[in-house]
């Protein structure tokens, strides 16, 4: 399937799409044209007019259903928060970082933003009204320093208490306590630089889409590389667990080799990974 629908070509971005995420009902895209577009999966058309406000390329984007919010970051260091149900701007965190925002992650009421300025910033949602409802505004809780290069990716545990981030120059994976802002563990010297991470909390592991053309799986307790999954012919730009994330039986990856691969884990979810399907853009319908 292509977006926009061929019957509505004017709905498309006017420049390169630089970020992408989804919810059960929507696909959300960010672009070099400084806009965000929310697409209905059902109609394959825009759910709302383009979301405007960024003054740089929208490099990072995240969305969730509860609360119904979109988080976006751009090349000017700005972070914006949008209402997923209306497409309206909720809050603009101008100059949140001194350089490009490379990743955003939201879990457990906590927003983490990673930047080329070598920092991760942690933002807390609040305050809470008399009925116990948190307003959809965010304020800075911690600035996490210690990475020796651009922080390429960050992810947050479901309870909002921990974050895992990786930087490029030192190939360092750090686990942070978001309550104190302190480093809990730091591991260095990995074979590839991770440009995107996903936590597998039930197994205390992290998936890493890497520049060495592989998907690496690391143990969060020891920092050891458990397995390297190979098959792509270029940088792996994204990786996601298929399903609820509780068990790593299937995953999907996207690469600069112009393919998307669907992987399955053998032996009931405990064996080696193998490619189930390789998709190219030529196969889109």
TrEMBL record:
Pfam families: WD40
UniProt repeat feature WD, residue ranges: 10-40, 51-92, 94-124, 144-186, 229-264
Keyword line: Repeat, WD repeat
SUPFAM superfamilies, per the entry: WD40 repeat-like (SSF50978)
Protein name: WD40 repeat-like protein
Organism, scientific name: Lophium mytilinum
